[in-house]
Amino acid sequence: MLKFHNFKFSFRIFYILLSLIVSICILFGLYLIVRSAKEETITPEKTQNMRTETIAIESPTEKENNIINIKYPDGLETAKKFDKLIASKYCVLIDIENNKILAERNADKKMYPASMTKMMTLIVAVENMESPDDTFTMTYDILNPLINEDASLAGFEENETITIKDMLYGAILPSGAEATVGLAEAIAGSETNFVRMMNEKAEEMGLKNTHFTNTSGLHDDNHYSTALDMAVILEYALQNDLCREILSTYQYTTSKTKEHPKGILLESTMFSRMYGDEVENVTIEGGKTGFTSEAQHCMASFAIKNNKEYIVVTAMEDDKWGSVYDAFDIYEQYLP
């Protein structure tokens, strides 16, 4: 009887030891599996599906990539003064390559920029649009106030669906105010929001005496700039390929729509007053005109002579052709 009890006791010990050994083996096996998973090689294919919320990877954003650094031109104090041949009250000539003011008159004094404003509208729109092929539907609420203010229009109609690209050209070539407001609403949700972006851009660019209250340049006492600031805005725009292309275009036909089956033929208000080769050895490549009763006639233009590029801004001239002929005279008489 005693032997039987001893056998039962020995079997119990053996069972306990066996269970411990099995448990240890299982745990060791799990350890090997976990370790193997941790040491698994991470291939490029696998990293594509990994989430990286806890890893901050810094890379330039689209907006940062759009930033173009342009140093504010120097030489204001030493620049030549335009003689009486130049009638515009505010004007400046800039050598882009050397970033130098060659000649000026009241270049840093506040004045009303009228539709030269649209150069900044173009910059902000191009830098912040998703795609030039995106569309926007023109509204009565945009058109009616502009018609009442006798603003210049590109010709887009109420309920017409147009592309961002067509509005960009519509804003610059015929100086369409409905195009600038359409761009503002399409890109920023409202003209107020877009104007805020324009003023932020002006500050980013280091403009010294510029403030905008609208996208088109319609008169407002608090909407002002200087000839020099407008020249800097144009120089900035020229660094962007699309902005340069638009500012250099004579004619452009918009996309076909139900309202305009053949599109709208848009024509540059600047090139409608010149060919661009009126000055010997100088090619005027593009620019933007402007007019309001308060600002009078003005124009920002850029030209090439001997493979060097220059910018001229002529503002506040009471004759429609005055700012244009002033530019001709400046390019002829004041370039090296």
Summarize this entry quickly.
The protein has 336 residues and is α+β, with helices and mostly antiparallel strands.
Structure description:
The chain is α+β, with helices and mostly antiparallel strands. The chain has 11 helices and 10 strands. It has helices at residues 2-38, 44-47, 62-66, 118-128, 140-148, 164-172, 177-188, 191-204, 227-238, 241-247, 322-333, and strands spanning 80-81, 90-95, 100-105, 135-137, 161-163, 251-253, 265-267, 283-292, 296-305, 308-317. The strands form 3 sheets. It has a 6-stranded mixed β-sheet, sandwiched between helices. Helix 6 runs antiparallel to helix 7 (177-188) and helix 7 (177-188) crosses helix 8. It is globular and about 120 Å long.
User: What characteristic shape results from the CA principal axes?
Assistant: globular
Assign the structural class, choosing from mainly alpha, mainly beta, alpha/beta, alpha+beta, or little secondary structure: alpha+beta
Record field, number of beta strands: 10
- Kindly report the spatial arrangement of strands forming the biggest sheet: 1-3-2-10-9-8
Average pLDDT figure: 87
Distance between the termini: 127 Å
Gyration radius, rounded? 33 Å
Question: How would you sum up the major sheet?
Answer: 6 strands, mixed
Could you state the order of secondary-structure elements as H and E? HHHEEEHEHEHHHHHEEEEEH
Which bin fits the share of residues in helices? 25-40%
Give the amount of beta strand, in percent.
Answer: 15-25%
Low-confidence stretches: 1-9, 34-65
Number of helices: 11
